[in-house]
Amino acid sequence: MLSNLSTGAFVEVDAIVDTSGNIIAQEVDVEDQVAANSQKSAMLGKILSVTRDGSGNATAFNLLVNDEVPDMSGVVPLRSSLSVSLTGTTRYRVRRHRLNQDNFVYGPQTLGVAELVAVFGTVQAGSPPTMTANAVYLRPRTVFGNFNTLLAAASDDKTGGFTMTPCGALFQQQPITILTFANTEFLDVSGLTALGPQPTLAVPGLLFYQQTNGPSAQPTWTAPTWTLEAKWVHQLPN
C-alpha cells in the first residue's frame, strides 16, 4: 500500500509505458531503508567470490559494485570490489519472486558467484571497504552462452530444460542448467528441440547456486552447480 512507503526506502518498480507515455507500475517492491548521513546503503552488482563454511553456507562474499544508492563513490568507487560479511540475522529474498516458478529457497546455500544481487547494510571505509549485510536480494540477470545438451522437453516444446556453457568468465566454462516453463518465451527459435550449439543464446532469469542435487525426474542437475529459471530464451543472430 502507498501508505506503507516511507522516505528513504529503497524501492524497485516494474512498469510499462502506455500509448500516452504514462509509466504504469505493475509491481512496487520495497526492499530496505538507505541513508547517506549514516552510510546505510544499497549496493548492486555481481558476486565475484564466496567464502563458505563446512556445510556449504556462504559466510562472506566480494561484490563488484555496479551501482549504489545513495552515492557512496568516495568510499566505494563504482566497478570496485566490496567485501560483504553475512551473519545469522542477514535476510535473503528473491527479487521478482514471480519468476521463481520452482520455488527455490534463496539463502546462504544458494548464494553464489555470478549472481546479480542488491545488498543492504552500513558501509565501513577501509582498504578494501566492507559491509555487514542486513539483507541480500537476488535480482534477475541475463546469461549469455552456448547450448550443450537437451535435458527434457514436454509436448509444448517449452517446458523442460537444457545445459548451456556461459560466456562469462565467472562461470569458468562450467555448464549450467537452464529450467524452462510453459510461459517461457522462445525468441528467434521455435522451442527446446530446435536448440543447437550455435548461435549464442541470451537467457534472462533467476540464477541460483545449488548445493543439493536436482530432482530424480528430468530436468535434473548434480550439485554444486548453477540453475537458471528462464524468463525467455533468445537465440541471437549469427
The fraction of residues in strands falls at: over 45%
Helix content bin = under 10%
CATH evolutionary superfamily of the largest domain: Copper binding periplasmic protein CusF
- The helix/strand series, from N terminus to C terminus, equals EEEEEEEEEEEEEEE
What is the residue-averaged pLDDT? Answer: 89
Radius of gyration: 19 Å
Determine the number of helices (DSSP H or I, runs of at least 4 residues). 0
Strand order of the largest sheet: 3-4-5-8-7
Judged by helices, strands and strand pairing, the structural class is mainly beta
* CATH architecture descriptor text of the largest domain: Beta Barrel
Low-confidence runs (pLDDT<50, min 5 residues)? 34-39
How many structural domains can be distinguished in the coordinates? 2
Number of strands: 15
Key attributes of the depicted protein:
2 domains, single chain, five-stranded mixed β-barrel, globular, mainly beta, 51% strand, OB fold (Dihydrolipoamide Acetyltransferase, E2P), 238 residues
Describe this protein's structure.
It contains no helices and 15 strands. 31% of the residues are buried. The chain folds into 2 domains: 2-139, OB fold (Dihydrolipoamide Acetyltransferase, E2P); 141-235, Beta Barrel (OB fold (Dihydrolipoamide Acetyltransferase, E2P)). Mean pLDDT is 89; it is low at 34-39. The chain is an all-beta fold and 238 residues long.
List the helices and strands and how they pair.
Blueprint: E1 9-17, E2 23-33, E3 40-52, E4 58-69, E5 81-85, E6 91-94, E7 116-124, E8 130-139, E9 141-153, E10 160-166, E11 176-180, E12 185-187, E13 201-210, E14 225-230, E15 232-235
Parallel strand pairs: 5-8, 6-8, 11-14, 12-15
Antiparallel strand pairs: 1-2, 3-4, 3-7, 4-5, 7-8, 9-10, 9-13, 10-11, 13-14, 13-15
